[in-house]
Write a structure and sequence with these properties.
Blueprint lengths: L4 E6 L2 E6 L2 H9 L2 E3 L6 H11 L7 E3 L3 H5 L2 H11 L3 H14 L1 H9 L8 E5 L5 H9 L4 E6 L2 H10 L1 H5 L3 E5 L12 E7 L8 H11 E11 L24 H10 L2 E7 L6 E7 L1
Parallel strand pairs: 5-6, 5-8, 6-7, 8-9
Antiparallel strand pairs: 1-2, 3-4, 9-11, 10-11
Helix pairs in contact: 6-7
Amino acid sequence: MDGIRRRAVGGNRTLDLRLTKASLYPLATTACVIVGKADSYKTMMDEIVKTYGIIIIQTQFVICSDMIRGQDNMTDDQSQYGNPRGDEGFETMKEMNEEHVPQITWGIEHLPEIRPVNILDVGCGGGIFTRMMLERYPGSRGCGIDISESAIEYADEFDSEFVDIGRLQLTIGDVQDMPYSNGTFDVVVSNASHFFWKDLKAGFREINRVMVPDGILCLTAGMHFSDSISEDHKFKDVGIINLLTDDEIIDVLKECGFSGEYYVAPNDEFCTYIARKL
């Protein structure tokens, strides 16, 4: 029943939501909770997935950080997306590997015609973007880097077919200080990890450093903003540091040595940013 429209009503606001698996994460990260059923982020997600595409969801949109702080479980679960750890982190990566395929596919579809030799996945998480790139470009080799030891452990198993034949190397590390030589990668990809970087510009500049001239950067995201973002929406206290509009992200990329543009999926479900190293 993917793609069925359902009416969501909350407070004085009525929204028409397209309920696809890919849209559940941006819905959740705007702090939507099921009234009377969910008292945490995880409970909310479980309840939506259980009946998704079937029920009418009554929602309460919480934009006040004080109210978010009252949802302790919500804060804990949200932090798993920036730095997965433990059993809950493994479950988070499993979910992301399944749910994020549509937004990653949208990004890959907008890559220019390329024949990459070396591909880097920044914030590789559970390894789904890495796998999809190595499958699409069979003559390439890949590297994945993530700040989370649990993510690297999970990706090593998930992408073992590429690790075992020497096509993929996985590394624990930070986007701001990567252990790669200048001009190493033809293509760099990243799925929604930029939300959690401590310094967005430093991350983009480091990516620029490890790319070949004219190299391609592809960022994918299930949450994006076409218009301005109020301070109430910048949920910095739940781990998301970098919330910018689409145009602002392109401006930051330009400051860091890229040209770029973005592509929004139908029904505004997700967005990809394609940039080229100048």
